[in-house]
Amino acid sequence: MKLLFPARKAITVFALTAFLTTASMVALAAPGRIVAELNVSGRTQDGETAAVFVNGETSRGGRSVFSSSTVATPDEATAVLSVAGTGRIELAPNSSVNLVFDDQMIDAELTAGTLTVLGASGTVKVRTNDGKDTVLNPGESISAAGNNGARKQSGKKDYTWVWLLVAAGAAVAVIVAVSSGGGDDVVSPNR
């Protein structure tokens, strides 16, 4: 009977551990929890793949980032965070941001560097060090000091100048034709 009692304790401890492990995995994989995927680009001076810091931990990319996280980039790395169904933001080198997001918005507190919105189906609101909240559209960037950057150039080129040049050329042709065609010779059909 003495051998049976320690075996029961071991089975109970094993069953309880299995239950708690399974329950925590189910809670973490609960539907509706929005995550961001982290992609890192850049190389260190040694030629190694650059890393960024997520909540103080080193990450080289491919990591899931949860809401209420802090992401910081060193001087050789750029990070792109793709928030499922909401948008994509890019952190320039030497940037730091505190992120809170859901399926409709990204709320970022930019404490250093520059943040650029690469795409958004939801709202992207950024609080900067000057205490102002700015809503950014795709292609817009902002620095931690609160300076809005110009829109990043998209793949589309602006050919407005070509149409203006064509219109100016047509106007010149009309003026030349009118001014040179005014001869004094009148031809009468009755002569």
Describe this structure in words.
The chain is α+β, with helices and mostly antiparallel strands. It has a domain at 33-149. 24% of the residues lie in helices and 35% in strands. The protein is built from 2 helices and 14 strands. The protein has helices at residues 4-28, 160-180; strands spanning 35-41, 52-54, 57-59, 64-66, 69-72, 78-83, 87-91, 96-101, 105-112, 114-120, 123-127, 133-136, 141-143, 148-149. A 7-stranded antiparallel β-sheet has the order 4-1-6-7-10-13-14, with no helix packed on it. Strands 3-2-5-8-9-11-12 form a 7-stranded mixed β-sheet, with no helix packed on it. The longest helix is centred in the N-terminal third of the chain and has 25 residues, at 4-28. The termini are far apart. Residues 150-156 have low confidence and may be disordered.
| Computed structural class | alpha+beta
Shape: elongated
Number of DSSP strand runs: 14
Radius of gyration: 32 Å
Give a quick rundown of the structure.
By secondary structure, the chain is an alpha+beta fold.
Write the layout of secondary structure elements.
Elements: H1 4-28, E1 35-41, E2 52-54, E3 57-59, E4 64-66, E5 69-72, E6 78-83, E7 87-91, E8 96-101, E9 105-112, E10 114-120, E11 123-127, E12 133-136, E13 141-143, E14 148-149, H2 160-180
Parallel strand pairs: 9-11
Antiparallel strand pairs: 1-4, 1-6, 2-3, 2-5, 5-8, 6-7, 7-10, 8-9, 10-13, 11-12, 13-14
List keywords for this structure.
single chain, 191 residues, alpha+beta, seven-stranded antiparallel sheet, 2 helices, elongated
